[in-house]
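Thread: "does anyone have the structure for this chain?"

Original post by V.I.:
We have the sequence but no experimental structure in hand. Need at least a predicted one for the grant figures.
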Amino acid sequence: MFNLNDYLSPVSIEPPVFENLGGNAGFPHYINIHTENNPIKDLDGFKVAIIGVPDGRNSPDQSTSEAPDAIRMQLYNLAKIPGRIKITDLGNMKQGNAFSDTIAGLTDILCTLLKEKIFPLILGGSSALVMAIDRALSLQKIKYTLLSVDPRIDYSSESEKPGSFSYLNRIISNHKSTFHHYINIGFQTYLNDQQVLNRFARRHSELVRIGDVRQAIYLTEPLFRDSDAAVFDISAVRQSDAPGTAIPSPNGFYGEEICLLARYAGISDNLKVFGLFDVSPKLDIRFQTTGLAAQIIWFFLEGFSQKQYETPVLSNSNSGRFIKYHVRVTDLEDDLIFVKSNLTERWWIEFSIENDQKVYVACSYDDYLKANRNEVPDKWVTAMNRIKS
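Reply from O.Q.:
Generated one for you, tokens below.
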């Protein structure tokens, strides 16, 4: 029988020299923590499980293996998460003899949690671990969308590139994978091979340059809402805000922006797994990067605690929760149908496919306004191409 205690080591970190919050106001006082005296027993009732994966192999910087505990040190010094969300910290996964063993073990853990409807939150380790996310979702037969916040598209035509820069090669070439759609938020053009960008554009991937994100960051929220897995590479943050990573960039997101993106991931009612990767404590300065990583996790969990499960009931026209708007656009045969939530004021576009089935694609109020100006929204074009393919 599968036993998580066989896969995971208890949390064992030094208490902070200075506690920012006294009493029971701190983060660790309201979560269940796997320790030597408190082994993993019953997961009933937990909504989120934190898993550290201290494996930096298949990466240019193996010191990322030290990141999970370094992030915990900072996370446990933050305030408790508002609300009544039940969180468990399962500790660190035991490293396999080979990197492939780590991938296999992490896949088993993720499958177990997904079956129990517990949300896995992964503290890496290198982003090569994304391959375990692919395997777990594929074994669950989930046709999934992967969203990465990363300055690079982690795909390479060079076979010798480390897996943290080429995990998409393995995913795309795997005929057993249920990978369906790719979204990148914050790529930097000068860090990417133009041929790779063209390749993913032909696949109808949604690639959003960092400059476009920063002009209107709120427009990324619908992208998270339609994603099944979200992975953050800490190098998406500018070097001045997060120096502790193997290949930093002077340009990137500010700390506040990456935390907002994490909150968008948290409130997504479609997301099934979240991962934060490529933090290198050895390259850090005065805990700046691990501190920001902890705040990314905190904002994700804060968003998770505010989650509203609206996607499953979108097709229920009798719920009274949504309003439908039909918009006529000259260049299209049929009206565009927009759906707005009365509760959260979020928007979707409704598509009818074969057998009159409905598909809902998350969009923004800006898309609705564009349609009212007799323009076809880019979101509609991208979604329609994906549906046809």
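V.I.: this helps a lot. Residues 288-305 form the longest helix (18 residues).
O.Q.: and Residues 125 and 240 are 22 Å apart (CA to CA).
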